[in-house]
Amino acid sequence: MPQRSSIDSVERTVYAEIRSWGEDSLFRQRLRLALESHLIWETYALSYDQVLPRLDFYQEVVERHSRAFRDAARGSILDLGAGTGNVTIRLLEQGHRVTALDISRAMLDRLLSKVDRQPDGVVSIVRHDAADLVQWTSASFDGVTILLALFDMANPAAALGEAMRVLRPGGMLVVTEPKRTFDLSSLLRYAERCLREQGAYDALQEHWARVSKVNRKIDPSARRERIFIEDIRERLELSGFSITREEDSHHGNCATVWAVRNSARGATVGGR
Q1: Please, what is the average pLDDT of the chain?
Q2: Predicted confidence band at 10 (pLDDT cuts at 50, 70, 90)?
Q3: pTM of the model
Q4: Checking CA distances to 101, which of 60, 87, 116, 148 falls within 20 to 30 Å?
Q5: Which phi and psi angles does 54 have, rounded to 5°?
Q6: CA distances (Å), 268 to each of 130, 240, 253, in order?
Q7: CA distance 130 to 68
Q8: What distance in Å separates the CA atoms of residue 87 and residue 98, rounded to the nearest whole number?
Q9: What pairs with residue 76 in β-bridges?
């Protein structure tokens, strides 16, 4: 459970003492990647809610992910890669119980500040690696939502496998991720134009610079471990899911897939 923290600077100093390790090069590589990821998302948390909710394509997918469960009976929803909680908040407003899971403490701190007045037991905020959900038994959740989270995970296939495993038969999984044709440059140009047309660019210039820089660092098309929505759709179909709907998002750069788990079989394809 994240603790409250005051995040007022993107500058951080990290101190560590290494006493012993096995393979030196592998250890150093993993440590470097972990620190880089931590600092990237800590930086993003400073400006995420200042910029993204102003963008039409972001508003669209948040609405999609919340609307998918609007008419469902009140149940338990897993928000995998919950970030600052913009989908989580919508689901709570609909009366669902939500488990909001993310690896970034900074993003979850922002979420925590939004749910102060929620009754006990309605929302669980968990800092955890999505690739290993062993603390939840199979079929634990009535629904799962994943909004642009898998693409930046170290092991996205395992995280998807776990999301499928913890969803009950008959439950809905809604996932939005980049397409193979994802083009970050065009999307950033559109977003900046959107801010200028709103007359918000000057006031948000520092936040926009931060958002742009972070997105260039996490560009899905440049990652080694890549998973695109086309791969996700295939894995879902092979794992006993029915695709009920699919729509483009982010001006054709991403897509949303709605899928229902038909049976208890599969649910491990592409996992660990």
Answers
A1: 88
A2: very low
A3: 0.85
A4: 60
A5: -85, -10
A6: 14, 10, 27
A7: 22
A8: 10
A9: 97
* 3-class SS of residue 46: helix
Q: From CA 122, how far away is CA 171, in angstroms rounded?
A: 19
DSSP state of 71: T
Which residue, chain included where needed, has tokens 């979420």?
111
Residue type, 254: C
Q: Looking at the chain, how many residues does it have?
A: 272
* Tokens, residue 47: 């400006």
* Range 39-57 average pLDDT: 94
Which DSSP letter does residue 53 get? G
Q: Which residues contact 238 (CB under 8 A, 6 or more apart)?
A: 266, 269
Give CA–CA dist 196/259, Å, rounded.
Answer: 37
Give mean pLDDT, residues 57-80: 96
- Residue 225 φ then ψ, to 5°: -90, 95
